[in-house]
Amino acid sequence: MSGRTGGPTPLPEPDPGPGQDPVTGQGPESLSPYRLFRREEWAQLRADTPLTLTIEDIERLQSLNDPISVEEVVAIYLPLSRLLSLYVAATQGLFKATQRFLMAERETKVPYIIGLAGSVAVGKSTTARVLKALLARWPNTPKVDLVTTDGFLLPNAELSRHGAMERKGFPESYDTAALLQFLHDIKAGHKRVTAPLYSHLVYDRVPGEERVVESPDILIVEGLNVLQPARLPRDGTAIPFVSDFFDFSIYLDGHEDDLHRWYVTRFMKLRQTAFRDPRSYFAKYAEVPEAEALKIADHLWTTINLPNLRENILPTRQRASLILAKGASHRIESVALRRL
């Protein structure tokens, strides 16, 4: 036993009991929508895929308090890169076949969109950047872009007017209509699509600044709640949501206790770095005593990030095409791939 307590847990150990579903821990394993791989089994699926990143590349791509090694890239992300290359090629083949059927040979190619979800502090940013770098180094060098949903958070002024600053990151704190329009334009093949620019330093949108996405072959969309299903209103008219636009989706998983610890550790490190910038929204936390800072970090986790995880993020895990389950050291211990 690990001794960790409380709350939802990630995937069970990769050796479930007879008849046990490796994702839910219940029911017959043969009926699971996922195929579960131990780390070593998944690593073998790399085949002859070459490592195209240097140690310096990997160090540059990792986020604060989210260590990632060359071995992790080789064991986990190279096989994933190989899988995605096959999926993208198959999707492009289907697109060409549909063009021929419709006699629409001049129709614009549709970008392949990958969604990446998971809790605060689980390491989504590092995963997204590493995956982007690997995919961009395929033969023929596809154009790969990365967008986070942070830019579609409602401005702080608007959240404050509605008393919703402590709900930041919850589904209702996003400009969903703008996010849907952005993804619609990407899928429609528009050559130039813009998104609002977000600053983690000031913890808000940057007025008048935009993030430009121009004709990507592959787009990675990273965010907390990107796998939420569409809402079904009483009149039966479906309202689309972000996940409806994804061709493939990844959920980055971690035990609740580990996520809590990673969040607090990151908060304390930021007190010595970004929080010391006088422009930082969190500059007020840089000078408080360490014991008080620990209490603040615990409070932020317990009152905001943990409820969001339990209510909105974790329930979407089983909608993912692929689940990467992290252990206590940030090392991915198992991979669950949805059966086709």
TrEMBL record:
Keywords: ATP-binding, Coenzyme A biosynthesis, Cytoplasm, Kinase, Nucleotide-binding, Transferase
Region (Disordered): 1-30
Residues annotated as binding ATP: 118-125
Pathway terms, separated by semicolons: Cofactor biosynthesis; coenzyme A biosynthesis; CoA from (R)-pantothenate: step 1/5
Example GO biological process: coenzyme A biosynthetic process
Molecular function GO terms recorded: ATP binding; pantothenate kinase activity
Protein name from the UniProt record: Pantothenate kinase
Organism whose genome encodes this protein: Methylobacterium soli
Gene behind this protein: coaA
